[in-house]
Design goal:
Elements lengths: L2 H9 L16 H4 L11 H35 L2 E2 L7 E2 L3 H7 L2 H17 L2 H12 L6 H13 L2 H12 L5 H6 L12 H25 L4 H9 L4 H12 L1 H16 L3 H6 L11 H11 L3 H30 L1
Antiparallel strand pairs: 1-2
Helix pairs in contact: 3-16, 4-16, 5-10, 5-13, 6-10, 7-10, 8-10, 10-13, 13-16, 15-16
C-alpha cells in the first residue's frame, strides 16, 4: 500500500482508536510471574514465609502427635476386641452394636443431657456475677478473690467438699434442712447433686471470661447509649451483650464440652452409682477400659462421645461465622 494511502487510513480512523502494532510481551518468567499465575515472591517475602513455617512446625507436629494421631488410633481400635495384653481381634462394628444395645449407654447419655441442660446455666450466672463485680466499689478485690476461688480448686477437692456438704449425718445440708437427705445415695438425686457441685466451679470460670470481656467494651458506644436514654436491661441487651458475643461463644462452647466430658466429680462423689444411675459417657468409657479391660469397647464409647462434641462444635462455628457475615 502506498505511504499516502496509509496516512489516509490512519487519518480516517475513529478518535481514540489505536491501530499500531502491540509491543512484544515479555515471557512470564521475565515479568516476575510464577508458575501458579501469582507474582513471584521477593527474597524478603520468601524468608518471612520460611520463618513462619519454621515457627509453626513444632506446634503442628505436637498437634498431630498428641491430638490427630490419638483420635485416628482410637477410631481404629474401636473395631477390635482387645484387653490390652493379648492380640487384637478384629470384630468390625460389633462394639458399636453392643454399645447401642446396652441399657447403661442410654443411662449415661440421658445423664449427659441433664449435665448439658443444667450446665448451660453457668454462662448467664457467670455474666451476672461479672456484672456485679465490675464495679468501682471499696473492697471489691476481696469479693472477686472469693468468687475466683472455685476456679483454682481441683475437681477432686470440689467433689470432697460437696460430698461432706451432702452427707446425711453431719453435712451442712442436713443441718440446714433439719434432717438428713441421702443425695448421693439416691438414684433420683445423685446426678443433680453432682451437677450442682460442678456448676459452682464452672460459674466462676465463666465469670472470669466475662470479666475479661467487659474490659474490652467500647466506652464511646456505652456513653452514646446512655445519652440516648438507654438504661438497665435495654443497655445490657442492645449494647453490652452484642459486644460480648465472642466471649459468650467461648463460654458456651467450653461449658458444653465440660458437660460432655465430665468425669472427675463423678469418680470422687459417686463412682457412677448408685447402680450406675449417675454415670456419664466419659465415666462409662473409663469404667469399661480400666475395670473390665475392654479397650476396644471403651474406644467405641470414646468415638461416639467425640462425634457428639464434633457435631456441636461445627454447628456453633458455622452459626458464629454466619452471624459475623
Amino acid at each position: 500500500m502506498p505511504q499516502s494511502a496509509t496516512h489516509e487510513h490512519l487519518r480516517a480512523a475513529p478518535d481514540g482508536a489505536d491501530f499500531s502494532m502491540p509491543a512484544s510481551t515479555p515471557p512470564a518468567s521475565r515479568r516476575g510471574v510464577g508458575r501458579d499465575g501469582g507474582r513471584r515472591l521477593s527474597p524478603t517475602a520468601r524468608r518471612q514465609r520460611r520463618a513462619a513455617l519454621l515457627f509453626l512446625a513444632p506446634a503442628c507436629i505436637m498437634f498431630g502427635v498428641y491430638v490427630v494421631w490419638p483420635i485416628l488410633s482410637t477410631i481404629w481400635l474401636s473395631f477390635f476386641s482387645w484387653d490390652g495384653m493379648s492380640d487384637k481381634v478384629f470384630v468390625g462394628l460389633a462394639n458399636y452394636i453392643e454399645l447401642f444395645h446396652a441399657p447403661t449407654f442410654y443411662t449415661a447419655l440421658k445423664n449427659n443431657v441433664i449435665w448439658l441442660a443444667m450446665f448451660l446455666l453457668a454462662p448467664p450466672a457467670g455474666l451476672a456475677v461479672a456484672l456485679y463485680l465490675n464495679q468501682a466499689v471499696a473492697g471489691m478485690r476481696v469479693v472477686k478473690s472469693l468468687f475466683f476461688a472455685p476456679f483454682v480448686l481441683s475437681g477432686v477437692v470440689v467433689g470432697l467438699m460437696f460430698s461432706w456438704f451432702y452427707d446425711p449425718t453431719f453435712g451442712l445440708l442436713a443441718l440446714m434442712l433439719g434432717h438428713g437427705v441421702p443425695v448421693l445415695g439416691d438414684a433420683r438425686y445423685a446426678t443433680f447433686g453432682i451437677v450442682i457441685a460442678a456448676l459452682w466451679a464452672q460459674t466462676s470460670y465463666c465469670m472470669i471470661l466475662y470479666l475479661t470481656g467487659l474490659t474490652t467494651l467500647n466506652g464511646e458506644q456505652l456513653e452514646a447509649a446512655r445519652m440516648e436514654g438507654a438504661r438497665g436491661w435495654a443497655l445490657l441487651w442492645h449494647v453490652v451483650l452484642p459486644q460480648l458475643r465472642p466471649t459468650t461463644f467461648m463460654a458456651v462452647v467450653v461449658t458444653v464440652i465440660g458437660a460432655l466430658r465430665s468425669f472427675d466429680l463423678i469418680a470422687v462423689m459417686t463412682g457412677g452409682g448408685p447402680f450406675e444411675s449417675s454415670t456419664v459417657l466419659a465415666y462409662y468409657m473409663y469404667d469399661q477400659a480400666i475395670k473390665y479391660y475392654r479397650l476396644g469397647y471403651s474406644a467405641s464409647i470414646a468415638v461416639v462421645l467425640f462425634a457428639i462434641m464434633l457435631v456441636y462444635i461445627v454447628y456453633q462455628l458455622r452459626r458464629t461465622l454466619r452471624n459475623e457475615q
